[in-house]
Amino acid sequence: MQETLILEPAQPASACVIWLHGLGADRFDFQPVAEALQGVLPGVRFVLPQAPTRPVTLNGGWSMPSWYDILAIQPERALDLDQLEESAGSVLALIENQRASSIAAERIFLAGFSQGGAVVLHAAFRRWAGELGGVLALSTYAPTFDETRQLGAIQQRHPVLCLHGAHDEVVPSALGRRAHDWLAARGVAVTWRSYPMGHEVVNEEIRDIARWLAERLAG
């Protein structure tokens, strides 16, 4: 994946968070959050990839950073599945790069906001067959969670933290909750956190993320 921003910790990295931004944003969007988390999570490398710039049908065909094209809201968020698969494949390549740098797979975490969250959920539970430290799903949904699909034993061990705004008008909270419930029904250790916010990130949410990551890394 091109133009990836990598934030190295002050001490040698022993864990990694691969964090995908949302539609129309860029790799610098979550840099302040990553730097704040590094202040309380020593030894964690943050990898912030950049989505390609391409036309987005839902936004009148205007080109912008996008992990996949959104074709319509109805039927429920119709999207370009080939582009989603391509983006998920790039995430898997980043995982492999971290493993090649001596980061154990169980200490690699995937995080994504909005459209980026949809990609990491797909990558973790539809594409990646190995161990993972866990998944952070921020203000997002899971467009490829098929009700007929089950998970393997390794995928069931991926812990997930779902964080969503109760007043989100871009990705309604009900869509995020649906992803949570799908995972819970398949034996995944998934936690739901709701905040009195819209489609955004707040300090309380960042503190919850720091606590959750610290617990996973300590365990």
TrEMBL record:
The keyword Hydrolase applies. Keywords: Hydrolase. Residues 4-214 form the Phospholipase/carboxylesterase/thioesterase domain. GO terms for molecular function: hydrolase activity. The keyword Transmembrane does not apply. This is Dienelactone hydrolase family protein. It comes from Geopseudomonas aromaticivorans.
